[in-house]
Design a protein that fits this description.
Layout: E1 21-27, E2 30-35, E3 41-44, E4 47-50, E5 61-64, E6 70-74, H1 78-84, H2 94-103, E7 111-115, H3 121-130, E8 135-140, H4 143-156, E9 162-166, H5 169-172, E10 182-187, H6 196-202, E11 203-213, H7 216-226, E12 230-237, E13 243-251, H8 273-279, E14 280-288, E15 298-304
Parallel strand pairs: 7-8, 7-10, 8-9, 10-11
Antiparallel strand pairs: 1-2, 1-6, 3-4, 5-6, 11-15, 12-15, 13-14
């Protein structure tokens, strides 16, 4: 995202220019990616925003509409891009992505192989993790999907760190040119067990594989295939629980068990205010968000056995 020098260093220190991709932030659940064009405008519930007013401002700036309302202009980080990208396929979200990068031991300079590319949510985060000297080679069997991913990577500024190929990895395996070169491999395939022999050839000794599968039956067959050449086989399910925390009035006459958020009682008269104050008190209340995501898939990790 927006590398500013030939060394591929990812940075947002410069100001917004014509043609940049920005994330327009209205609130935590209302964001969209916009390409800045000097002659264009953005119209939303807050009014009309001129793109020309954005140019020259640093990322993170608050900009105002003709109605005096405002939005924030944020840099397209992998975290934000995951929330606003076009879903050509089911994507991995932040909880899974962060776990994958840690367990695959991805650091700057790594060479990572990925199949399939899909919407590119994970690929963008992988690119940042390997920057500035590493590289991600990602493959998808669907030519139009691969072409769309290339355009997205150019927009987000990671195209110098990512190469997108069109290939049926499940049927053909990874290209032989990467044999013994990959530090990590990620699979998001319907039948990942068919690819395990190819993965074993691609990985360096002690390299790590991750396979993402939505069904336990897929996990079981994958683990059976891994046991011959891999060790330290582990499967995880990442469940993220988000909480809403805010201040409210706790009614002394109500049972608020279960962590529910009480409603503020409306005062109808000044005469009854003292009695109501005695029955309620201000408190910080918390409850799980109703839209919290549940199961997304299972992550199976394995390490290639060292030859002795």
């Amino acid at each position: 995202m927006l590398p500013t020098d030939p060394t591929k260093k990812i940075s947002f220190t410069r100001c917004i220019t014509d043609g940049d991709l920005v994330i327009v932030y209205e609130r935590h659940d209302a964001m969209k990616a916009i390409k800045v064009c000097e002659d264009s405008v953005l119209q939303n519930r807050f009014g009309v925003f001129k793109h020309s007013d954005w140019i020259g401002k640093p990322f993170g700036s608050k900009v105002f509409s003709n109605k005096g309302k405002f939005v924030y202009l944020l840099a397209p980080t992998p975290e934000l891009w995951t929330l606003v990208l076009s879903h050509r396929t089911q994507i991995l979200y932040i909880a899974d992505i962060s776990f994958v990068i840690m367990y695959l031991e991805i650091v700057p300079g790594c060479l990572v192989l990925e199949s399939g590319t899909g919407s590119g949510s994970l690929t963008t985060s992988l690119a940042r993790a390997v920057a500035p000297t590493g590289h991600v080679y990602t493959f998808d069997f669907h030519e139009q999907r691969a072409a769309s991913a290339r355009l997205d990577f150019e927009q987000t500024g990671v195209s110098s760190l990512v190469t997108v190929g069109v290939r049926d990895i499940q049927g053909e395996g990874f290209p032989d040119e990467f044999s013994g070169m990959a530090d990590s491999v990620f699979l998001d395939l319907p039948q990942p067990w068919l690819t395990i022999p190819s993965v074993g050839k691609m990985l360096k000794q002690d390299g790590v594989l991750c396979s993402f599968s939505p069904c336990m039956e897929q996990v079981q067959r994958t683990c059976e295939s891994l046991r011959s050449n891999f060790t330290d086989i582990r499967t995880f399910e990442i469940l993220l629980r988000t909480y809403e925390v805010r201040q409210g009035k706790m009614d002394g006459n109500r049972d608020n068990g279960g962590g529910s958020l009480p409603c503020k009682r409306k005062q109808h008269s000044i005469e009854g205010s003292n009695e109501q104050d005695n029955q309620s008190s201000a408190a910080v209340m918390a409850r799980p968000c109703a839209e919290a995501k549940g199961h997304t898939g299972y992550l199976t990790f394995a390490r290639l056995k060292c030859l002795s």
